[in-house]
Amino acid sequence: MTPELKERIDNLVKQNKILVFMKGTKLMPQCGFSNNVVQILNILGVSYEAVNVLEDWEIREGIKEYANWPTIPQVYINGEFIGGSDIMVELYKKGELQEMVTVALAS
User: Fold this and answer.
1) Cα–Cα distance measured from residue 84 to residue 73, given in angstroms and rounded to the nearest whole number
2) pLDDT at residue number 107
3) Cβ density class 15-26: b for 16+ within 10 Å, e for less
4) Distance between CA 46 and CA 43 in Å, rounded?
5) Do the beta carbons of residue 76 and residue 19 sit within 8 Å?
6) Phi and psi (nearest 5°) for 49?
7) Is residue 83 within 8 Å of residue 75, measured between CB atoms?
8) Cβ contact 89:36 at 8 Å
9) 73 close to 21: Cβ distance less than 8 angstroms
10) Which of 54, 60, 64, 104 has its CA 20 to 30 A from that of 70?
11) What is the pLDDT of residues 78-101, one digit of tens each?
C-alpha cells in the first residue's frame, strides 16, 4: 500500500464516527453482506458514511490490507475496525452494537 493511499484511508476513518466500506451505496447496496450492514445501521437509526469500493479500485484493494481483513464490507466505529457483516450481525443480536454506536456518536 502506498503512503498516499494509507493516508487517504486514515483520513476517511478518522473523519467519520461510523464508516462503512461497502459494495454499492447506502441506498443501493450491491451485495447481500453490504445490505446486511446497511439494514442494521438503518434499524439503529444512526448517521453513518459509506464508501463505495466499486467506484475506487485502489480503495477496494487497499482497505483489505489496511485492516488485514480480506472481505468487504468493513465497518469502522470511532476509528476502530469492527469487522464485516457477520460480526455486525452478532454484535447487533447481543445488543453490543447499539452501545458502541451510542458511545461513538456521543464522543
Assistant:
1) 5
2) 80
3) ebbbbbbbbbeb
4) 8
5) yes
6) -110, 155
7) yes
8) yes
9) yes
10) 104
11) 999 999 999 999 999 999 999 999
Name the residue among 59, 7, 50, 5 with its Cα closest to residue 31: 50
At residue 66's C-alpha, the angle toward residues 61 and 22, to 5°, is 55
Task: Give the phi and the psi of residue 89 in degrees, each rounded to 5.
Answer: -60, -45
Which grid coordinates belong to 45? 437509526
Alpha carbon distance 13, 30 (integer Å)? 22
SS3 41: helix
Provide the pLDDT for residue 12: 96
Buried-state track 65-75, b at ≥16 Cβ within 10 A, e below 16? ebbebeebbbb
